[in-house]
Amino acid sequence: MTPPASTAPGVGNPVMERLQEVGALTRVIEKGLGGVLGVNGTGLSAMEHLAGEGPLTAKDIADRLRVSTAASTHIVDRLEKAGHVVRRPHATDRRKVLVEPVQESVTRLFDHLDPLLRGVEGLVEALSPGDRDVVANFLNEVVRIYTDTADSLPRG
């Protein structure tokens, strides 16, 4: 059961309220990007990892998404069927297969994300070095708390 809005954590705290708003808007953006690419949220998350990190194994994808390797295989199957990834043999380990993002899909993804990324980058660049350190330390702790929570949840 959800606590009443007046007693929910963060109510009346502008920083907490903005973080909650960022979270909600992130989900809206993810839904829109998923629609553009024709993938669900998990497929979009996999694409984001592949676009940012390059080719990964299905096991690597499973670890990053915190899902089982079987679920990761299904995700890769759907992405491959949609034309967003290809499977390639690993260059040095014949037992492994790398999942490689298709450049056209990565380009489409970043075409939509570019205004957001450039806008946030501009905000960061406008901060003084001291303010940047404060924000970076705060966000590092937010990421740690999120990671601890994600690690405590059952894998999908």
Describe this structure as you would to a colleague.
This protein is mainly alpha-helical and 156 residues long. The chain has a domain at 34-117: Arc Repressor Mutant, subunit A (Orthogonal Bundle), CATH 1.10.10. Helix content is 68%, strand content 8%. It is built from six helices and three strands, in the order H-H-E-H-H-E-E-H-H. It has helices at residues 14-37, 41-53, 58-65, 69-81, 103-126, 129-152, and strands at 56-57, 85-89, 97-101. It has a three-stranded antiparallel sheet with strand order 1-3-2. Helix 2 crosses helix 4 and helix 3 (58-65) crosses helix 4 (69-81). The longest helix has 24 residues, at 14-37. The radius of gyration is 18 Å and the shape is globular. The model has no long low-confidence stretch (mean pLDDT 92). Residues 32-132 form the HTH marR-type domain. This is DNA-binding MarR family transcriptional regulator.
What's this entry about, in short?
The chain is built from six helices and three strands; from the N terminus they run ααβααββαα. By secondary structure, the protein is mainly α.
How do the strands and helices of this protein lay out in sequence?
Elements: H1 14-37, H2 41-53, E1 56-57, H3 58-65, H4 69-81, E2 85-89, E3 97-101, H5 103-126, H6 129-152
Antiparallel strand pairs: 1-3, 2-3
Helix pairs in contact: 2-4, 3-4
